[in-house]
Amino acid sequence: MAITRKKDKQEIHQPATPTMPGLPKTRVGRPRSGTEAERLNLLLDAATTVFLNEGYGLASIAQIARAAGVSTRTIYQMFPNKAALLIAAVKRLVVNELTVVIENGVLNTCTPETALTTLGTIIVTRVTTADAVSLYRLGLTEVARIPDLAEKICEAGPMHTEKLVATYLQAQVSRGTLQMADPLNAARLFIGMVTASPLQHALFRGAHLIHHAELDQHIKSAVKLFLSGTLPRGK
């Protein structure tokens, strides 16, 4: 994947998620003021900021409450502890959007190539955001110190994402549009193919620019390679 430098401000350019008829559009910005969704997003935004600034060990519910402008009681009504808050923040990064797309059922009306490109684009664009990369690093630092927490983060993020993609793949196996012995393992392989290179750049070359077209081509190439081993013969 080619990398281009800019003299001043640099960022990763992400491809837009493909749109398809029937696929609900992701609303840009926050929900209407006062809604439960808005309050949850504000809280998770504040929690993410505190976790990244202070580290998980030093972060406290009181700090998160001050950052969110709510009481600690309000937080405890929603989450039993700060571990649950961190897990919710991780889950929000990718899983929530994937869940909507897969449960909507519209992917089943598309070709496997279009559907997998959609899934791959959602996953890549979400895991390479600044918050996602920072939370990934945070999780790595906590593995040795709090292994149980690291395992829960893995379950809420990567493992849940694998299961969602496997749900789509299993549906295609049942319909005869794809063939594979183990959809869950195939999901792991697919996610690795689409995310490995972009995530590596985001982690270690965050100041570099990845062009939209290059990232888009990377996803398409990964999808094509995956389908070369999973499409029924003759298709």
Describe this protein's structure.
The chain has 235 residues and is mostly helical. It folds into two domains: 45 residues, Homeodomain-like (Arc Repressor Mutant, subunit A, Orthogonal Bundle); 146 residues, Tetracycline Repressor, domain 2 (Orthogonal Bundle). Helix 4 runs antiparallel to helix 5. The N terminus is likely disordered.
Keywords for this structure?
mainly alpha; Arc Repressor Mutant, subunit A; Tetracycline Repressor, domain 2; 9 helices
Instruction: Examine the secondary-structure arrangement and name the CATH architecture of the largest domain.
Output: Orthogonal Bundle
| Total tally of structural domains | 2
Largest sheet: none
CATH class of the largest domain: Mainly Alpha
Annotated CATH homologous superfamily of the largest domain: Tetracycline Repressor, domain 2
Note the topology:
Layout: H1 36-54, H2 61-68, H3 72-78, H4 82-104, H5 112-127, H6 130-142, H7 147-175, H8 183-204, H9 212-228
Helix pairs in contact: 1-2, 1-4, 4-5, 4-7, 5-8, 5-9, 7-8, 8-9
